[in-house]
Amino acid sequence: MTETEVIAGWIAPGARVLDLGCGDGRLLRHLWQTRQAPGYGVEIDDAHVLECLKNDVNVLQMDLEDGLATFADQSFDCVILSETLQAIHRQEPLLQDMLRVGREAIVSFP
C-alpha cells in the first residue's frame, strides 16, 4: 500500500483538505478521484505549482515558513503535511497553525 493510499484511507468522503507542501498535486488529485474530497495545495516551488495546474489541482504559491494566516480557523476538515516537516525551520508554529485551520492533521515523514 502506498503512502497516498494510506492517507486516502484516513480522509472521510467529501472532507475539505489542505495539503501543505503538495508537490505536483498528485495526492490532492487522488483524494478528489477516490474520496470526492475537495482541497487546496500549498507549494513554494514554481515547477511544482505548474504541475499542480496541469493536474487540475487548486494550488496557492506560499512559503510555509510564513505560517497559514491566509486561512480562517477550522476552514478544513483535514490538513496534510506529507514528507515536508523536515524542510521546515519553524516546525512548532506550523503544526499549531495546522490545528487551527483544520479539525485534524496528518503528518508523514520520508
Question: What does this protein look like?
Answer:
With 110 residues, the protein is α/β, with parallel strands linked by helices. It is 35% helix and 24% strand. It is built from 4 helices and 5 strands, in the order αβαβαββαβ. The protein has helices at 3-10, 26-35, 46-54, 91-101, and strands at residues 17-20, 39-43, 59-61, 76-82, 102-108. The protein has a 5-stranded parallel β-sheet, with helices on both faces. The longest helix has 11 residues, at 91-101. The two termini are 15 Å apart. The relative contact order is 0.21.
Topology of this protein?
Elements: H1 3-10, E1 17-20, H2 26-35, E2 39-43, H3 46-54, E3 59-61, E4 76-82, H4 91-101, E5 102-108
Parallel strand pairs: 1-2, 1-4, 2-3, 4-5
Which features does this protein show?
single chain, 110 residues, alpha/beta, 5-stranded parallel β-sheet, 5 strands, globular
**Beta-strand percent range:** 15-25%
Cα shape: globular
Helix content: 25-40%
Average pLDDT score: 96
Question: Can I get a quick summary?
Answer:
This protein has helices spanning 3-10, 26-35, 46-54, 91-101; strands at 17-20, 39-43, 59-61, 76-82, 102-108. It is an alpha/beta fold and 110 residues long.
